[in-house]
Every structure is written in C-alpha cells, then in structure tokens.
C-alpha cells in the first residue's frame, strides 16, 4: 500500500504505537475500530508494520566491505559488556569512524544496512545493539520495542556512549568520530554531542529528541540536524533547540524534508520517502567527509 493511501489517523496511531507501550495487538485493534473513508483502517495499519524482506541496499557479502560482530567492555552499562556490528571498508585504513544508533527497538536489519552503507562510503561503522545485554535484537520490532523499554535508560545510554568511544579508539580509526542515529538514536546523537564535547567531531541526528537546552553550550561537534516535515512530537522541540545552538555559537545546519513523516529514512514501512531519504543520506555522508577526513 502506498503511503498516500494511508489515512493520517493511522499514521498518528502508528506513531503512538512506536513510541509508547502499546502492543501490536492493540495497535491493530484500535486501527480496525477507526472510521476511515474509502478504506480499511486495519489494512492500512498492517501496511505500516515493518517488512525488511528484500529491502537491503548493501548485502553483507559485498566485496567493498567487511562486516563482523564485535564485543567490547561497557562499564556502567546494562551488563558491563556490549556487542555491535562493525563494518569496515575494503582496504587497510585508517578510516574515519562513525557510530550508528538504532531506533527504540534494537539493532534491526535496517540499521545494519545503514552501517554497511556507511562503510561503502568509506567509514569505519559501528552499529551497537542496545539489546545485547538481554539477548540481542529478537528478530522482530514489536518484541524489540518491549525489550528496549524494559532496560534502565541511563544504562542503555551508557552502552551507546561506550560504543562511541570504542569505535573512535579502534585500531582502524583515524581518531575522528561522527555519530548518526534515527528516532531514539537521533536523541542519543544529540546527547553524545553534549557529553563528548570536542571528542565528537560531527553529529547527524535524524528526527531525534533535542537535549536539555541548558546543555547545548557543551556541544563542540559540527551538527547536521535532519527533520521530517510532518512530525509534531519532535518538531515541537526544533525552534528552541535551534535558538540554543545559535546562542552557543555551535556550527550547525538544519534540514526539513518536504512531504515526509517521522521515520522517512527507514525503508521498511510506507513512511519511507525514497527521494528524500536518499538526499538526506547523501548530505550525511558528504558532511562526514568534510568533518572527519
């Protein structure tokens, strides 16, 4: 089903489902009870559920990259250790490093594909799985969302921070670090920029929660902040965040992508906007080229 055929009420309900404890069953039940002109709320809701089959852009067998699972210490995190998906470009290196932070459901196939795309673009890419301490991404987003919500959020963030340090200091890294992330991961990127100061060189959050405004002054990374046009929950924070960045003298650029909703970069649902997603990713890699090499 094409995104233009899905009623806005279903999109709103799906956003609530993604960002609250609503179960998949309740999401579908509530969608089926909505009065939708010219269609079925249930069918529209089912079309929005992620489908990762045959959507990968870069396969793990691609000879331009080498992908491996790595384990590393994570003091103060959920269990004291972490696991991540490390993808390196072909060649000896060193390479500029990028940490890629997943949404609120663990390291799903989409984020692994983003890591491979980053490696094809020339970056040593680490995609940590925040669910690793409790068994890892379970194979579906619904369970992943529940698992991630069950974690202590401060410990989960510490695992992401430790992951950023791990890839920055990796033997194949040139010592420069970028960070990008999506939804929950976008918020993490904003917070990494606060907490890492000069040790983060560039941040590209996609539709992520803004940090506390009083902390923005600590950001020393160059920031490229990506917004969906139709994303009321996140966009409500945009103006104040932008003003705080200006006041602090931070180097930043903001893009808002027309005809997009929250999650437009994720190819697994009809929220995906191919044209704008490709533009946003091209801008991301060009920005990292400028700041990390």
Detail the topology: elements first, then pairings.
Layout lengths: L7 H12 L4 H10 L7 H8 L16 E10 L5 E10 L5 E7 L7 H12 L3 E5 L12 H10 L2 H16 L4 E10 L1 H13 L5 E5 L15 E9 L1 H4 L2 H11 L3 E10 L12 H19 L1
Parallel strand pairs: 3-4, 3-5, 5-6, 6-7, 7-8
Antiparallel strand pairs: 1-2, 2-4
Helix pairs in contact: 1-2, 2-3
Short structural description:
The chain has 293 residues and is α/β, with parallel strands linked by helices. Helix content is 39%, strand content 23%. It has an eight-stranded mixed β-sheet with strand order 1-2-4-3-5-6-7-8, with helices on both faces.
Describe the structure.
The chain is α/β, with parallel strands linked by helices and 293 residues long. The protein has two domains: 3-48; 65-292, Rossmann fold (3-Layer(aba) Sandwich), CATH 3.40.50. The protein is 39% helix and 23% strand. It contains ten helices and eight strands. The chain has helices spanning 8-19, 24-33, 41-48, 109-120, 141-150, 153-168, 184-196, 232-235, 238-248, 274-292; strands spanning 65-74, 80-89, 95-101, 124-128, 173-182, 202-206, 222-230, 252-261. An eight-stranded mixed sheet has the order 1-2-4-3-5-6-7-8, sandwiched between helices. Strand 1 and strand 2 (80-89) form a beta hairpin. The longest helix has 19 residues, at 274-292. It is globular. The protein starts with 7 loop residues before the first helix and ends with a helix. 48% of the residues are buried.
